[in-house]
Amino acid sequence: MRGMGFRDRFASLMARSMPAVTAARRETPAPPSLPARMPADHEPTGLIQVFRAVQVLETAVSALPIVQLDRAGRQSIADGIVNSPSLDMTRRELVSYLVACLATDGNLFLLKRRVGDKVIDVMPLPPREVAVTDMSADPRRSDIRYSWRGLTFGREDVIHKRLVAVPGRLRGLGPIGSCRVELEGMADTRDFAANWREEAGVPSGIYTTEVEISDEEADDAKRRIMSAKSGQPLVLGKNVRYARTLLSPEDMQFVQSRQFDGVQVARLFGIPANLMLTGTDGSSLTYTNIEQSWIEFSSYTLAAYADPICEALGELLPGRRAVAMDWDSSRRSDTGTRYAAYKTALEAGFLTVGEVRAREGLAPLETQPDKETSNAQ
C-alpha cells in the first residue's frame, strides 16, 4: 500500500466494482426506501447541552494533526491510506464521524475494503446497526463476528474500538448509553417547561368573593372574565375579586434546573464549563485556570477519543508502524509559550531550526550568502 495514492486506490476500487455496477444497470432499480427515523427531539443530541458537547469533541479531535511513526517511534512520511483512509469522505470528516460514534454509542466500526489482498480504504459502519457476537464455545479462544444488514464479517474484516471497555461486554460503553435515564429526565424537564402554559394544569387566574354564590353565578362570572376584551373595563359585581396566577420567566422555564443540567452534561463528557458556555457560581476564570483546564481536557478527555481512532488507523499499516495525534501545539495555549519552549529546545540542542519550522508548518530556510561575499560581487 505504500506509495499508492488516492487516485490509484480509487481506480482499483472502481475496477473491482465495475462488473457489479454493469450487472446492476441491466435491472430496473427498486425505488429507495428511507429507514424509519426517531424524531430529533427524542434523541439525546436533541438536547442543546449534549449537541454542544459532541460538537466540541468533534471539532477538537478532528483539528489535531495526524502523524505516522516508524518502528522506532520516529515520525515518518505518512502513507496514502493514512492521509485519506476513506474514499467516501475526507480524513477530517471521517475523524469527526468516528468521534460522534464513540460519544453517542461508545463504539466505532470500520469495514476494510480490499482489492486482492491489499486494503485500499475503510468504510465506517453505523454503530447502532452492528451486532457483535462471540461464536466460540471455548473460553480460551474467541471467535468474534460482526453482523450488519444481513452480512457477517470476522475480525480480519472489521476494526472495532471501544471508548470504555466493560468486563463481560463485547460492545463498549459511551457517556450517553451510561446515563441515558438522566438524559431522558433532562429532556422531560425541557418539554415540561416548553408546554407549561398549555399542559401544566394550573389555572390562568382565580376569582374570590366574600359572599356565597351559586354555580350559575360562578359560571356567569367566569364567562365574563373569559369574554373580556383587552383594554375594556371588566365588571364582576357581588364583591368578586379576580387575580391572575403569574410566574416569572425564570420559574416557567426552570432556569436553575436546566443550568444544573448543563453542568451535569459537562461533567458527563468531561468538557470544561467555559467550552460548554456554562458558568458555575463562585468560579473565576483566569489565564492560568483556562490553560490548566485545556491541558487536562486534552489529556483526559480528547485522548480518550483520539487514541482509539489512532489505533484503528494504525491497523491499516503493515509492520509495526503506528499512527498518533500531534498534541504539541494543543497543550500549549498561546504562541509565546510555544516559542519559549522552542527556544529552550534549541538552546539545549535536541531540536534544530529546521525541525522547529517543520513543527510550525513553515518551509525550510533558504541558504543565504555571506554579506562579505555579496559585497565583493
Describe the protein.
This protein is an alpha+beta fold and 377 residues long. Strand 1 (66-69) and strand 2 form a beta hairpin. The strands form 4 sheets. It has a 3-stranded antiparallel beta sheet with strand order 2-1-11. A 3-stranded antiparallel beta sheet has the order 4-3-8. Helices cover 44% and strands 14% of the residues. It has 3 domains: 1-28 and 40-197 and 250-330, no CATH class; 203-244; 334-365, no CATH class. InterPro entries: Phage/GTA_portal (IPR006944). It comes from Bifidobacterium lemurum. This is Phage portal protein.
Proportion of strand residues = 5-15%
Domains counted in the coordinates: how many? 3
Over the alpha carbons, how many angstroms does the gyration radius reach?
A: 31 Å
Q: How many angstroms does the end-to-end distance come to?
A: 51 Å
- Give average pLDDT, whole number: 76
Note the run of SSEs as H and E: HHEEHHEEEEEEHHHEHEHHHEHHH
Largest sheet: spatial strand order: 2-1-11
Structural class: alpha+beta
Total helical segments:
14
Stretches where pLDDT falls below 50 for ≥5 residues?
18-27
For the sheet with most strands, the description reads: 3 strands, antiparallel
